[in-house]
Amino acid sequence: MPLQSLRDYLEVVEAHGDLLQIDGADREEEIGALAEIVASTPRHPLVLFDKIKGFPPGFRVSASTMGGIRRMALGLGLDPTLSNVDLVRAWKEKLKTFKPVPPKEIQSGPVLENVIAERDVDLLAFPAPKWHERDGGYYIGTGCCVFLREPDENWINMGVYRVMVHDATTLGIFINHIQHGRQILQKYWARKENCPIAVSFGQAPSLYLAAAQREPWGVSELSVAGWLAGSPVEIIRGGVTGLPIPAHAEIVVEGEIPPMDQESLPEGPFGERTGYYATGTRSEPVIKVRAVMHRNDPIIQGDPPLKPVPGMDHFGIPLPSAAVWSALEYSGVPGVCGVWQHGPFATIIAIKQHYEGHARQAAAIALGVRTTLALGRFIVIVDEDIDPSDLKDVFWAITSRCDPATQTQVLQDFPTSDINPRVAPEDRDAGRFVASRIVIDACRPYRWLKEFPVTNVMSQEKKKQITAKWHSVLDKLGR
Predict the structure, then answer these.
(1) Is residue 86 within 8 Å of 94, Cβ to Cβ?
(2) Which of 262, 315, 351, 458 would disulfide-bridge 258, Cβ 3.0–4.6 Å?
(3) Residue 207 and residue 122: Cα distance in Å, rounded?
(4) Which residues pair with 50 in a beta bridge?
(5) Class of domain 6-300
């Protein structure tokens, strides 16, 4: 059955033993700290906070909602028993079946259980957490979906951007300069017009994951979400903006974003998915909220960015890896065995070498894929016997197979993101967002591939045979 809501998804996650409920935490420090601590454990369950200090029971917050590999597979409709690389492979193949499924407009839905308008709006009624110790405020939007209408072509853009609570009727929003959402804002502002906006703060995984993808200009992520869910997204027309409202969402606000020369407020700092506070505090757009809708006992979906180390990635499965893999295949690069992205900075590609220069060819194609441009800094090519999702394995390949003098290459002046911590202060002030890239060829040299020392590791085929026989013992180790 399609997962129509965040609640549907939480039920499935709980049924798989992957949900931990914590009662009585304080949103000031404890929710964020507990989310980070739990994310660093081997099990890394989704955390659902209830009975939050100072708020009514039932006003809940989830954390690391999409942070686990297996539970994210459930949200994508993929087999959670697949290996890491096979999950990316399955997602890549699923993308080939894409067919837009337009949303279905209905007249009512659970999100309308509570409707608050104009003077009665009170955003302070929701337990938006302070996710990181040095954050500049309470962030209700870390796992949210932002809806904007492109003013010239009239299509709906859906994106994931961070949203901060300023006061009872005002939110702050940070949209990176390279995002479609920012380009849409600029179009309204160039006309001296306010930009209508709707934001959902808890929704079905198909909506959130579609919003997080980097779709081409003009593609409606709502239709992507419908395809992903296997059925049309049920929407209600917003009474204030006319924008689509997910009928099964937890909390939705409607309002408008005035031009920044008319109104803006300091936003941040915020601990971003790079693991740093790169943007500091600066004036950013505000949302003047005119209406709030929410379900009874609403849940704020929290996907706070944590330091991107294994087990604590923002998304359990790095879906953009499939875009790199597809680009390699489309370009005719043979022998691609797997692709994995570790956080926003490093893309690892495993290949079975067919000819000299094969590794460099793969790297050259990967450098041009959109998903590697914003923050990607390292392109690492490894042999087919290396698991690109396992940093220990990758590091072993780099340290044992790569000759730094002949198997690395640095390239300058690639475009990068506002949140890149490596942009120099003077470049940031000047609006110059560029960075270098390094290609690391960690493959065995093709010219003497057959003479390269043989590893002492058992073959994958043999390991699978032994694992199948002894699974009852090995499963106790929590593999």
Answers:
(1) no
(2) 262
(3) 25
(4) 23
(5) mainly beta
Residue 471 CB neighbours (<10 A) = 11
Query: Where along the chain do its domains lie?
Result: 6-300, 320-451
| 129 within 8 A of 302, measured Cβ to Cβ | yes
Per-residue confidence (pLDDT) for residue 377, from 0 to 100? 84
H or E, element range at 254: strand 251-257
CATH code for the domain defined by 320-451: 3.40.1670.10
Could you tell me how many residues make up the chain? Answer: 479
Residue type, 409: Q
Phi first, then psi: what are they for 171, rounded to 5°?
-115, 155
The C-alpha atoms of residue 81 and residue 350 are separated, in whole angstroms, by 21
Task: Point out the least confidently predicted range of 244-253, 293-302, 322-331.
Answer: 322-331
Question: What gap in Å lies between CA 233 and CA 245, rounded to an integer?
Answer: 10
Q: Which of 361, 317, 360, 324 is nearest to 339 (CA)?
A: 324
| pLDDT above 70 (res 425) | yes
Residue 112: both structure tokens together: 């309308």
CA distance 340 to 350: 9
